[in-house]
Design goal:
Elements: H1 2-12, H2 14-17, E1 21-25, H3 34-42, E2 47-51, H4 56-65, E3 70-75, H5 78-88, E4 95-99, E5 115-120, E6 132-133, H6 142-149
Parallel strand pairs: 1-2, 1-3, 3-4, 4-5, 5-6
Length: 151
């Protein structure tokens, strides 16, 4: 009976079954290349979860209940959400990656002593945060580009 209860708890609480997470944040209007995200995540972790850019409160609740390492992945407006989670979560992520952040978005995670990478397309021209400016890659293709870049 104790074994059965343990198995139920293990499979009903995903935080117990996963050794780490990558938490993705979609852009406006749920824009997100799920295929690129999952291909990227397969290289780094065993579990993923994705939130819309405006679901930062749900994401913070999720992060605060985690007992395993996690990373953040923000696309477009989701980059703002990644920064919001960093500012409000009880525990910092091990790494943050953003793609396609708008030029006025603060994605400088250095001040939080977090490892991070930012990739900017044309919408990020003039961006003051550190990162890689990728020329000739469309906004809706930057996630795929990053996934291929990190092979």
């Amino acid at each position: 009976m104790k074994y059965l209860i343990f198995l139920l708890l293990l499979f009903t609480n995903p935080a117990l079954a996963c050794k780490s997470y990558i938490i993705g944040f979609r852009g406006l209007d749920s824009a997100f290349d799920h295929s690129a995200f999952y291909d990227y995540a397969k290289k780094r972790t065993d579990c993923t979860v994705v939130f819309n850019h405006n679901e930062y409160k749900r994401a913070i609740r999720f992060v605060n209940q985690l007992r395993v390492p996690y990373e953040l992945y923000g696309y477009s407006a989701g980059a703002v959400t990644a920064m919001t989670v960093v500012k409000r979560a009880k525990r910092m992520p091990g790494y943050v990656i953003t793609m396609g952040a708008y030029y006025s978005t603060d994605v400088d995670f250095y001040k939080y002593e977090i490892d991070y990478d930012n990739f900017f397309d044309a919408s990020g021209a003039g961006q003051k945060s550190p990162g890689i400016h990728v020329k000739n890659v469309a906004h809706d293709r930057i996630q795929r580009y990053v996934t291929e870049f990190f092979k």
